[in-house]
């Protein structure tokens, strides 16, 4: 995959990294939508690929040439394919720096994924930004706990090469393997969503190893809980929080740490680390605005607005979807659909997705804040909070909780735990213990949980 991040654009083509967790139906849909000509596939994913190709054949759709990364098989094989190329081939440069370099499909938490078109210019600037944003020095050793299908690995697929880094690859995120590799290969950097951090901190203590050096880890994709950050740092990691979307080419802001914050109590430091921070120097503008008036919100850490972006690292648009593109750029800014506040020092802090805000009795409740409190309970492994309809209050918080193995906690105890740590109107009135549904990239499918909460009906009569 790392070779192809360079080889495909150098051949004058557009690279489209597909999620390895897709099912055959979705894979066939994206292959058809992207009009892919060649599909490179690891041998372990070949059966799923064959099923997707069969679906395309049955619908009389064009299907790509399949090149298998393996030493055997009936399909065209990768190393033989490469060996058969022209040794004197000249790099095909883009005619214009705004020509597309990649097509990246969003994770599709609520609907069919959209294809984000990313330009050569955007990729170039984002790759440079990614290295500077984390202060990555020369010749780092980078562990790929972050999938490359996420925005070309947040552009680190190119960024690590800028500083002459060594890439260490994983087939899957296994905490024991991660610790072993860090120690064996002296890994300096790795990245991942809060799900990866959660997996590491909750791994068996026998699988965890003492780290002889600080390992830097960027986390993004969802706001990390302060408790998780604290546990990661106790294990020997240095956590830095970034924020961005597929449409921004990956990291667009980072929580730049101020030296004076080192003097604050540890708990306060962890809360600050969960902020999304300030724009990268390659992003022209990042602001939190009223989505209707387009006026900037007050920097008081309380007023809510929508995070919006402008700059050369923003996507060119959605492939074959003009309406969605125009909606995303309505008002001349790229709209994230994330609700946030802006602190007096200019740092932004995302509170929720627009659709996830709970309005109870006229009060706005940010589900992330409620989730953070519930997660601080020592028996909780995962949590997601959504709105439950209520005839009196309009909506009330409903918490879906997954407990750690061997823990026995009831719903009323969880509710009381929250009421002792936050205003009562913010505490959940319903607690459901169950596994959390996730999409192919590991994000919690809150729309499915909202449907479940809706079927419960109103608590008030």
Number of domains: 3
Shape: globular
CATH homologous superfamily label of the largest domain: ANL, N-terminal domain
Radius of gyration: 23 Å
- Give helix % range: 25-40%
Mean pLDDT: 91
Give me the secondary-structure category: alpha/beta
Biggest sheet strand line-up = 7-6-8-9-10-11-12
Q: Would you identify the regions where 5 or more consecutive residues have pLDDT less than 50?
A: none
CATH architecture of the largest domain: 3-Layer(aba) Sandwich
Gap from first CA to last CA: 57 Å
In the CATH hierarchy, the third-tier topology of the largest domain is known as: Rossmann fold
| Count of distinct strands | 22
Tally of helical segments: 15
Sheet bearing the most strands, described?
A: 7 strands, mixed
**CATH class of the largest domain, please?**
Alpha Beta
- Report the β-strand fraction as a percent range: 15-25%
Q: Any key phrases for this structure?
A:
alpha/beta, 461 residues, 3 domains, GMP Synthetase, Chain A, domain 3, globular, Rossmann fold, single chain, 7-stranded mixed sheet, 4-stranded antiparallel sheet
Could you characterize what this model shows?
It is a single chain. With 461 residues, the protein is α/β, with parallel strands linked by helices. The chain has three domains: 2-93, no CATH class; 119-353, Rossmann fold; 358-456, ANL, C-terminal domain (GMP Synthetase, Chain A, domain 3), CATH 3.30.300.30. It is 30% helix and 25% strand. The strands form six sheets. Strands 7-6-8-9-10-11-12 form a seven-stranded mixed β-sheet, sandwiched between helices. Strands 13-14-16-17 form a four-stranded antiparallel β-sheet. Strands 1-2-3 form a three-stranded parallel β-sheet. A hairpin with a 5-residue loop joins strand 16 and strand 17. Helix 2 (24-34) packs across helix 3, helix 5 crosses helix 7 (156-162) and helix 10 crosses helix 11.
């Amino acid at each position: 995959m790392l070779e192809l991040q360079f080889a495909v654009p150098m051949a004058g083509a557009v690279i489209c990294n597909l999620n390895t967790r897709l099912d055959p139906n979705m894979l066939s849909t994206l292959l058809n939508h992207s009009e892919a000509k060649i599909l490179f596939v690891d041998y372990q994913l070949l059966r799923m690929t064959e099923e997707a190709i069969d679906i395309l054949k049955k619908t009389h759709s064009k299907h790509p040439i399949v090149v298998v990364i393996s030493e055997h098989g009936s399909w065209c094989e990768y190393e033989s394919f490469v060996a058969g190329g022209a040794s004197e081939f000249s790099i095909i440069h883009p005619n214009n720096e705004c020509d597309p370099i990649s097509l990246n499909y969003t994770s599709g938490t609520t609907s069919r994924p959209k294809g984000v078109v990313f330009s050569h210019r955007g990729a170039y600037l984002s790759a440079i930004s990614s290295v500077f944003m984390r202060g990555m020095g020369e010749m780092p050793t980078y562990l790929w706990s972050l999938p490359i299908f996420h925005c070309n690995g947040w552009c680190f697929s190119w960024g690590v090469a800028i500083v002459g880094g060594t890439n260490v690859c994983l087939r899957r995120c296994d905490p024991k393997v991660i610790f072993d590799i860090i120690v064996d290969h002296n890994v300096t950097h790795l990245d991942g969503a809060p799900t990866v951090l959660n997996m590491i901190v909750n791994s068996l203590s026998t699988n965890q190893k003492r780290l002889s050096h600080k390992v830097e880890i960027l986390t993004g994709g969802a706001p990390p809980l302060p408790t998780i950050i604290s546990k990661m740092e106790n294990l020997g990691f240095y956590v830095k929080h970034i924020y961005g979307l597929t449409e921004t080419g990956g990291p667009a802001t980072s929580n730049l740490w101020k030296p004076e914050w080192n003097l604050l109590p540890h708990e306060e430091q962890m809360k600050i680390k969960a902020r999304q921070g300030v724009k990268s120097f390659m992003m022209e503008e990042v602001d939190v605005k009223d989505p209707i008036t387009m006026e900037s919100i007050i920097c008081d850490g309380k007023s809510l607005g929508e995070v919006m972006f402008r700059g050369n690292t923003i996507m060119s648009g959605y492939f074959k979807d003009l309406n969605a593109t125009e909606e995303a750029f309505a008002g001349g800014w790229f709209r994230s659909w994330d609700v946030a506040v802006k602190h007096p020092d200019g740092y932004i802090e995302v509170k929720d997705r627009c659709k996830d805000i709970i309005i109870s009795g006229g009060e706005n409740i940010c589900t992330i804040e409620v989730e953070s409190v519930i997660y601080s309970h020592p028996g909780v492994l995962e949590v997601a909070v959504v709105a439950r309809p209520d005839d009196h209050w309009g909506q009330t918080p409903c918490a879906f909780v997954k407990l750690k193995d061997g823990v026995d906690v009831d719903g009323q105890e969880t509710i009381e735990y929250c009421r002792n740590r936050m205003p009562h109107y913010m505490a959940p009135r319903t607690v459901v213990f169950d596994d959390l549904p996730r999409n192919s990239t590991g994000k919690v499918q809150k729309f499915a949980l909202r449907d479940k909460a809706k079927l419960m009906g109103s608590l008030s009569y």
